[in-house]
Amino acid sequence: MKLLINIIRNLLGGLIAAIDFITRGSKLKRTQEAQEQVTVELEKLSLYQFFACPFCIKTRRAMYKLNLPMVKRNASEGSPYRDELLQGGGKIQTPCLRIEKDDSVEWLYESSAIISYLEKRFV
Ligand SMILES: N[C@@H](CCC(=O)N[C@@H](CS)C(=O)NCC(=O)O)C(=O)O
């Protein structure tokens, strides 16, 4: 039963990901200098996610539109990043944005909160 639910979830997620890919449109354009600055800032950010999770797709779509080519970590079962997420953030829930600060690390859960954070910081 669990296997069947997983198959349906992955099929639906794959379908949503494909529709997202086809319909996501254009990304934010910055000057080369501004985009290089963004690239430097992105070295401190990473997104823990599942490929077929609708909340992750929504977050990746916002990241694409904001032109934020950030590192993505697959937190599926069997991946070492799953354990990192659990140890660092405290729970297995995706998406989760890992934000490296000067002397600490913040783990930001909730797709809407992640998107608001990225929009405030990068628009
Ligand atoms: N309200 C959350 C919902 C996130 C959520 O439910 N994520 C699911 C995947 S789609 C999850 O992490 N479930 C835990 C698990 O699969 O172990 C958001 O908007 O980010």
Structure description:
It is a single chain. This protein has 123 residues and is of the alpha+beta class. It has one domain: Glutaredoxin (3-Layer(aba) Sandwich), CATH 3.40.30.10. The protein contains five helices and four strands. Strands 2-1-3-4 form a four-stranded mixed sheet, sandwiched between helices. The protein is flat and about 50 Å long. The site of glutathione has 10 residues, from helix 3.
Task: Kindly summarize this structure in a few lines.
The chain has helices at 2-23, 32-42, 54-65, 80-89, 111-122; strands at residues 45-49, 71-74, 96-100, 105-109. By secondary structure, the chain is α+β, with helices and mostly antiparallel strands.
Observed structural traits:
single chain, 123 residues, alpha+beta, Glutaredoxin, four-stranded mixed β-sheet, 54% helix, flat, binds glutathione
Which helices and strands occur, and which strands form pairs?
Elements: H1 2-23, H2 32-42, E1 45-49, H3 54-65, E2 71-74, H4 80-89, E3 96-100, E4 105-109, H5 111-122
Parallel strand pairs: 1-2
Antiparallel strand pairs: 1-3, 3-4
Helix pairs in contact: 3-5
